[in-house]
Structure formats: structure tokens, C-alpha cells
Design a protein that fits this description.
Helix content: 55-70%
Structural class: mainly alpha
Shape: elongated
Oligomer: single chain
Number of strands: 0
Strand content: under 5%
Length: 325
Amino acid sequence: MVKKQVVQPNTEKISSKNYRPQKFVFGCFLVLIAVGLLISFLSYYITGNSDQSQLASLTNRNFKTENWLGIIGAHLSHFFIYNGFGIASFIFIKSIMLVGIYFILDINILKLRKSIFWDLYLVLIISLFLGFFWNQLPNLSGIVGYEINLFVQDYIGKIGLLLLLVLLFISFLIFKIKISPDKIKNKFEEIKRNTQTASKELSEDLELEINQNNVTSTNFKEFELEEDAISKIEIKPVSSFEIDKESLKPTIGNPSELSLEPKIKKHQIPVENFSIEDKTAVQEEPIEESFVIETVEEEETIEENLAARIVDNFGEFDPTLELSN
């Protein structure tokens, strides 16, 4: 007999689909917690330690806190910053935010293992280093960072702790940031090439600018010389009353040979001897004396008027003047 194969339903896919809303809600919850921690941490550093001395009275609802997130924000910020790792506690906010986003997007949370490990590694380095400044700024390292700093100093001393921090920081750069000596060498060579290229381009630009300035100065000098030459040329205004002397030059080669005296041509008219005979008899009539016109008197009056006018203009004749000369 043939055995029947029983097909089992894929319970994994069904279960993952059933848990999808819960993951989304849990992811949103983690994101909101990260935002709340960010607000409370910022408020802790801005408002100062005004709520630290009155943490016992924070349970009273009538007490007004300075923290922006209220009583819960004051307790959270005091726990993470003062009692914890100081300013390095902001890295916890980044880790919580990433976990919440992965839950919202339904991404495998195991992919964040390396990221969370390096975040905790960086928190340890920062809090250890800032533990040296506990006496001046205790809120930078927190109690945990300060205590770990003192614990390590008891075994390797302050210089040993500094060397250890340098080693831890180099390890972080090599394994997390992926910075290797070859990359550093290539980076310096690239910077050197870029610097040489930039300097070469700058020198070419400067040389081109100098050449342009030289050409401009040469053209300017030539323009100045042309202006000087033009300014030296005297332009005499032509008068409308000036006579063109060339137009007055004689058109005849030797004008002195010409005689300006007019020549009068004499025409001889032949004159024939002729006589006119007056055949009419002229009868002479006696002239009567009553019709005689005396012209002599008028001439005398004219002469008298002329003499009087001369006397008025020049005065009477003085004969002594002729004798003196």
C-alpha cells in the first residue's frame, strides 16, 4: 500500500505574520523611549543639577521639577548620567532607537549584534577617558566611569591607563571604522597628489593672469602713446572768412608779360568834302531889349553865398600868416 504523505502547514510563516503587529508596536515603544531619554538627558545638562538634591521629594506630586520630562525624566537622567556612564549614555539612545526601527521594519535583530557590541565598547572608552575629569565635571563620566578609572589606575597607573585607552581607540578605528595603515598611506598620498594638482593649477592660473595683465598693460601703454600723439596734433579751425591762397594764384604762367593798358583801335572814317546849301532865306527880326535876361546878377549872388560859406567854415583870411611863413 502506498503511504499517504501528510502535508504539514507552514506554521513559521503563519506565526511570523501573527506576531507582526506586536513587533511593530514594540518597535514604536522603543523608539518613543529613545526620544524620551534624549529629551531628559538634554534637559539634565541644560537645567543643571537643580533636581539632584531633591530626588527624595520627587515622589511628591506637588513638587515641580526642572526636567522637561517631569519626575520620570529627572530619575532617568540621574540614573544614566550621574550614576551611570555620564555623557556616553547618549550612545544607549542610539542603540535603543536602532532596535526599535528593526522591530518596526521586521528586520532580523541579530544583525545588530556587532553594532550593539561596538556601542558598548565606545561607552566604556569614553567613560574611562572622562573619568580623569571627575573632580571638575562629574557629569561627564558618571560614577561608573570614574570608579572603573580608579580601579584600572590602581593596577597600571595613570600613564598605563592612557596607553590602554590609546590601544582601545586604535582597535576601534581598525576593526569598526576599517582604517588600516595602507588606507592611511593611500589617503596621505591622495592628499599629496591633490595638493600638487591644486598648486599646479594655481600656478597656471597665476601665470595666465600675469600674462593677461602684461598684455593689458602693453595695450594700455600703446593706447597712451596714441593718445599723446593725437594730443600733439594741432587742429586749426578753418575760418569761413579765410581766403584760399591757391585759388588766387594766376592761371597764366607769366602774368608780367601781359599789358594791362587797354588798346584803343582807331578806325579812320573817310570824310568826303560836302557842302550844305541853305536855300531858305533867313529873315532877321529886330531883338527887343525888354526880353534880355540878366544872368550876371545870379552869378554874383551865387559867388557871394559861396564866399560866405567859406568864411563860416575857415574864418577870414589873415595876411600875416603868409608873412610869418
